[in-house]
Amino acid sequence: MNDKNKAWLKKRKWDIVFVAFIGLMFIPSVRMPVMSFVQRLFAGSPSEIAAEDQKTVNSMDWILLDLEGKQHNFSASHGKITIVNMWATWCPPCVAEMPSLQKLYDKYGDELAFYFVSNEQPSKIDRFMNAKNYTFPVYIPASNYPKEFDSNSLPTTYVLNQEGKIIMEEVGAHDWYSSSFLEKVDGMLGN
């Protein structure tokens, strides 16, 4: 390769990378992992809602089914810090934030109440969970969700304090294992 071609390549390297990236988006089997990776790169730490804008969940009576079809009531989370994540297996930002949510679940387990809620078929969710080795609890709504969880975007994640007040509401991929979020949870737990 002559010096003129090397200079041209050096000058256009980011253009070539961009075109290659766009080209990858047209390959269905590559699209999801690439989009999830990019979303994960830009995922920020969740932030707390200003105290005056925080809402309390008025009706904790929300019926959910686990992947085996067993019924659960959201009211069981009352008195615990609760994470509610609305997600889907086909959603790149949802998939992007799942590793940090799994780490959060691994760290706190039963200390927090976790509700990962999807409207997809249990068999599809189960295949996804097994393929990714995720162990957090997934539910399918069996009744209407509390009106305070009204969102048209996936993923949407709500963090409730022990009194049932929504202290965080985040849309899109976030890093739920960030040091600032872990400090917030530890502070709420009194650790």
TrEMBL record:
Q: Which CDD domains match?
A: TlpA_like_family (cd02966)
Q: Where is the Thioredoxin domain?
A: 53-190
Stored PROSITE patterns:
THIOREDOXIN_1, THIOREDOXIN_2
Record organism: Brumimicrobium oceani
Spell out the Gene3D superfamilies in the cross-references.
Glutaredoxin (3.40.30.10)
Pfam families from the UniProt entry: AhpC-TSA (PF00578)
The organism's superkingdom is given as Bacteria
Q: What is this protein called?
A: Thiol-disulfide oxidoreductase
Q: GO molecular function of the protein, one example?
A: oxidoreductase activity
Keyword list, A-Z: Redox-active center
Q: Does the keyword Transport apply?
A: no
For this protein, the record's InterPro entries field holds: AhpC/TSA (IPR000866), Thioredoxin-like_sf (IPR036249), Thioredoxin_CS (IPR017937), Thioredoxin_domain (IPR013766), Thioredoxin_ResA/DsbE_sf (IPR050553)
Check the record and name the SUPFAM superfamilies matching this protein: Thioredoxin-like (SSF52833)
